[in-house]
């Protein structure tokens, strides 16, 4: 169906050299009287362009265009937006399950007698192999080579599957291991900003199953992280549906002071925006202060949008954007096209105060930012660097129920003779890692300059600190080497260990057995410091309970000090080779030296040397991985990495989720800030856990267990790993840690997996009860898939994190929110109750009221009001089919049958 509105917006623009292209002009909508489009937030205008261009009367209707064009800053948010993105970006850990879902659909199609080729990506897909690197070797010149060899050896079956997918599905391009982290590669190479198809120019937009996909919004691209199952649907041509958002404008004023880094800024911003409750909203930066930020600093702020809870943190395209594109080696013709296109759309340049109507404006004064860290458990818990000693000791003594470590008194053994292997506050891991900061030459070069000064003074990292450097792209090594700084980082043990997420995603590798044993035997609160974006308890390493996020130069400084229990202003970082005390201020590079180093690093040749290559020829290890053939993946019952999940073979997973729940038991009762790491860990697999026992029974040696993240395409392992985090506290078993619960009515204590299987045999439905911010953290599809396979029908929580709520709906699990004031604590739940969820049927509506009936052991009954946290009619359609995979599969079968129907 053709849209007259769409046709009325079609215009022509000059491309240069006598070439022309068409585009859909947003200004035409304002001329047609649809609304003050020129005052819309820029990010919304880019979404609006997609609606206009894809307005076909089926997936996108004229009403969708009209509603968004008339967006009001304080309007009611009831309408849904069917957003068709231009491309998809995948990493390996989250991306392999996405490709696995498509492979599962092909197998289902074959069984149903349909054409497996009906399952085919409809838009371009880029995949970067970046999450499988582990830091087994460090502080040596051959660490990079040895870690990469181990990476390919351990992941040969996983990588072989990826090579099958690249060959079998159309439009998927992969960058092998060893090039960098997806989000930094996206910034430096994959992002086009303006796409051209069939003679039509349109903005580059992207979605990915990694929550930090939104880093690309720092470059002026609308994109964010979503659940893997939602991303898979987008790959197959389905719109990404979301509720029309509020847009929070962040008015940036002033300039950062001397010695203040982009990391300090983003940690302060995260705390500020969390306090202002921007969860699920668009955040858009504007003002002179935003215009003055470098592109790398903007990307750092955009990267941590999941940590401050927003869908994205957006910066408009301007001269700084075009300068960055030039510096990173993009063709001048592409840069010129970008400038012309956004100027033609009226979207070029950083908005000034008063230019745009926002739902809320928050002022961020850069002059108030001070050197900062965040920790020891959450990225929003900012601590001024000058207060880290005081803060750590306060948290050390706080009771565990108040978020502390419950120390009666701190272990205050001083360094020196007779010092035990490790004491409270000791830094045992110091890692420069993650996309958040390693994309930023300013902080990376600052780390190199600080290391240079430290080496010149004779300082060394403390012997109990495991040091590592995992740049977000190989380009970082290009400019560190060119500046002559890598040698000084090497001297302190910060040798390059690989190009991937590494420690930030939990792939920190082992620490010494002596240290780990000492930590366990003495209950030591050991620390990690990293330039990452997540520091949830136990994420960095199972033995490490406290983690602080900080800038790369501070990571180096804390490796020198060896502890967070020191006053950075009064205590020395170490002592020089002449015995003199050396303070952090003595090592910190001055502004002029740093600016000169950054200017020297901005060379397009660095980027061309890394990316203008044949990827397949650069990594011979990748080429040696065998490939399997065929349009349908040959699942093997003997494989411990790849098992076809039961989403289309288990009849219980294909029926509507919109039905009452009667006589349910609580599998777990949890507190606030339960992360996806708690729900579906990616860490090492313990031999005594249900997953470990499964692998042992399958003949896998303990040394070959790998981790949960690597085995995400084996549903047997991942289902056994649900709620298996060693730091999970299930209130059904007070005082416990780990994946344990109490089966009722037997009152027997057992693992959560064993209890779920027993409840399944007894045909008892399950729910999980939790506090605020349930599902914080990574966009992990198995945090929804796993509970679904355990038999969990609903999650009842005080509030949900955006991506995880969407994942639950996509897997057919009901996200139900307590009415204000109600909670597991206020209801005095202990796990002995049964629950009835009422008011639910096929006629359900978004955000409708439900009732939770609590049936107590003594016969008392209590009814609590809930809100069904389903945001759109489309999400209800997913639930009616049992989940988004089943819905999309049905749509594909319908489309395929229409195409093959005889005329």
Outline the structure in words.
This protein has 903 residues and is an alpha/beta fold. The chain has five domains: 4-83, no CATH class; 85-238 and 603-634, Aconitase, domain 3; 245-315 and 350-369, Aconitase, Domain 2 (3-Layer(aba) Sandwich), CATH 3.40.1060; 372-599, 2-Layer Sandwich (Aconitase, domain 3); 651-891, Aconitase, domain 4 (Alpha-Beta Barrel). It is built from 35 helices and 32 strands. The strands form ten sheets. It has a seven-stranded mixed β-barrel with strand order 24-27-28-29-32-31-30. A five-stranded parallel sheet has the order 6-5-4-9-10, with helices on both faces. A hairpin with a 4-residue loop joins strand 25 (740-743) and strand 26. The longest helix is centred in the N-terminal third of the chain and has 20 residues, at 92-111. 58% of the residues are buried.
Total helical elements:
35
Please tell me what the overall shape is: globular
Helix-and-strand structural type:
alpha/beta
**Rg from C-alpha positions?**
27 Å
Task: Provide a concise account of the structure shown.
35% of the residues lie in helices and 17% in strands. It has 903 residues and is of the alpha/beta class. The strands form ten sheets. It has a seven-stranded mixed beta barrel.
């Amino acid at each position: 169906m053709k849209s007259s509105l769409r046709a009325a917006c079609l215009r022509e623009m000059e491309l240069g050299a006598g070439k022309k292209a068409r585009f859909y002009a947003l200004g035409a909508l304002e001329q047609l009287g649809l609304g003050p489009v020129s005052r819309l937030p820029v990010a919304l205008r880019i979404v609006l362009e997609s609606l206009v261009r894809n307005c076909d009367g089926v997936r996108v209707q004229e009403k969708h265009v009209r509603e968004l064009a008339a967006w009001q800053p304080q309007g009611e948010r009831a309408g849904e937006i069917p957003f068709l993105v231009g491309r998809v970006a995948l990493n390996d850990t989250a991306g392999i399950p996405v490709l696995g879902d498509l492979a599962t659909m092909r197998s289902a199609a074959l069984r149903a007698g349909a054409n497996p080729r009906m399952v085919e990506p409809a838009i371009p897909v880029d995949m970067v192999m970046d999450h499988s690197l582990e830091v087994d070797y460090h502080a040596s010149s051959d660490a990079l080579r040895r870690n990469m060899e181990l990476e390919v050896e351990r992941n040969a079956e996983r990588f072989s599957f990826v090579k099958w997918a690249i060959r079998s599905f159309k439009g998927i391009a992969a960058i092998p291991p060893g090039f960098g982290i997806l989000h930094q590669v996206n910034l430096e190479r994959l992002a086009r900003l303006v796409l051209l198809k069939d003679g039509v120019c349109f903005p580059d937009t992207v979605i990915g199953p990694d929550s930090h996909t939104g880093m690309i919004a720092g470059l002026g691209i609308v994109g964010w992280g979503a659940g893997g199952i939602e991303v898979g649907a987008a790959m197959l041509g389905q719109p990404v549906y979301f509720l029309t958002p509020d847009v929070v404008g962040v008015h940036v004023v002033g300039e950062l002071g001397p010695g203040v880094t982009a990391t300090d800024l983003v940690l302060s911003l995260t705390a500020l925006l969390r306090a202002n409750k921007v969860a699920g909203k668009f955040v858009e930066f504007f003002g002179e202060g935003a215009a003055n930020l470098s592109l790398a600093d903007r990307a750092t702020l955009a990267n941590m949008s999941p940590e401050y809870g927003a869908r994205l943190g957006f910066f408009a395209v301007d001269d700084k954007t075009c300068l960055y594109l030039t510096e990173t080696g993009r063709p001048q013709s592409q840069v010129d096209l970008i400038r012309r296109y956004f100027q033609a759309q009226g979207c070029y340049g950083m908005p000034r105060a008063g230019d745009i109507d926002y739902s809320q404006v928050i002022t961020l004064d850069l002059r108030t930012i001070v050197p900062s860290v965040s920790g020891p458990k959450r990225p929003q818990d900012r601590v001024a660097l000058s207060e880290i000693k005081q803060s750590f000791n306060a948290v050390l003594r706080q009771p565990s129920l108040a978020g502390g470590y419950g120390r009666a008194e701190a272990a205050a053994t001083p360094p020196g003779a007779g010092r035990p292997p490790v004491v409270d506050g000791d830094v045992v891991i110091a890692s420069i890692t993650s996309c958040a900061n390693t994309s930023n030459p300013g902080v990376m070069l600052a780390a190199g300059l600080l290391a240079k000064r430290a080496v010149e003074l004779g300082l060394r990292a403390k012997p109990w600190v495991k040091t590592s450097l995992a740049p977000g792209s190989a380009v970082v090594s290009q400019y560190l080497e060119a500046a002559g700084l890598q040698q000084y980082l090497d001297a302190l043990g910060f040798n390059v260990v690989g190009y991937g997420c590494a420690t930030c995603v939990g792939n920190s590798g082992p620490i010494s057995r002596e240290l780990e044993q000492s930590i366990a035997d003495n209950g030591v609160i050991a620390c990690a410091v990293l330039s990452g974006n997540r520091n949830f308890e136990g994420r960095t390493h199972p033995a490490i309970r406290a983690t602080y996020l900080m800038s790369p130069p501070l990571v180096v400084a804390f490796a020198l000090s060896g502890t967070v229990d020191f006053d950075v202003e009064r205590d020395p970082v170490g002592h020089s080779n002449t015995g003199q005390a050396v303070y952090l201020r003595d090592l910190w590079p001055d502004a002029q030296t740093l600016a000169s180093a950054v200017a020297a690093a901005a060379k397009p040749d660095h980027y061309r040397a890394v990316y203008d290559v044949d990827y397949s020829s650069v990594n011979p290890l990748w080429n040696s991985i065998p490939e399997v053939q065929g349009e349908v993946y040959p699942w093997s019952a003997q494989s411990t990495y790849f098992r076809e999940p039961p989403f289309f073979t288990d009849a219980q997973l294909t029926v509507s989720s919109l039905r009452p729940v009667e006589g349910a038991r609580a599998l777990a009762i949890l507190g606030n800030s339960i992360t996806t790491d708690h729900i579906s860990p990616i860490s090492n697999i313990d031999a005594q856990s249900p997953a470990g026992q499964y692998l042992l029974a399958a003949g896998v040696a303990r040394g070959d267990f790998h981790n949960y993240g690597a085995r995400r395409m084996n549903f047997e392992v991942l289902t056994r790993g649900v709620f298996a985090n060693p730091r999970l506290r299930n209130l059904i078993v007070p005082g416990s840690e780990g994946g344990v619960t109490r089966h009722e009515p037997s009152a027997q204590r057992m693992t959560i997996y064993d209890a779920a299987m027993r409840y399944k045999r007894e045909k008892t439905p399950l729910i999980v009860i939790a506090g605020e911010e349930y599902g914080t953290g990574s966009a992990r599809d198995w945090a929804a898939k796993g509970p679904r396979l355990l038999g969990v029908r609903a999650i009842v929580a005080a509030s949900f994190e955006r991506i995880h709520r969407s994942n639950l709906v996509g897997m057919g699990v009901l996200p139900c929110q307590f009415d204000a004031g109600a909670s597991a604590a206020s209801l005095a739940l202990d796990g002995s109750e049964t629950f009835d969820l009422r008011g639910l049927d096929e006629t359900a509506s978004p955000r409708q009221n439900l009732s939770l009936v609590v049936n107590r052991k003594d016969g008392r009954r209590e009814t609590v009001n809930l809100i069904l946290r389903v945001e759109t009619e489309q999400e209800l359609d997913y639930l009616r089919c049992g989940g988004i995979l089943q819905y999309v599969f049905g749509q594909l079968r319908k489309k395929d049958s229409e195409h093959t129907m005889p005329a």
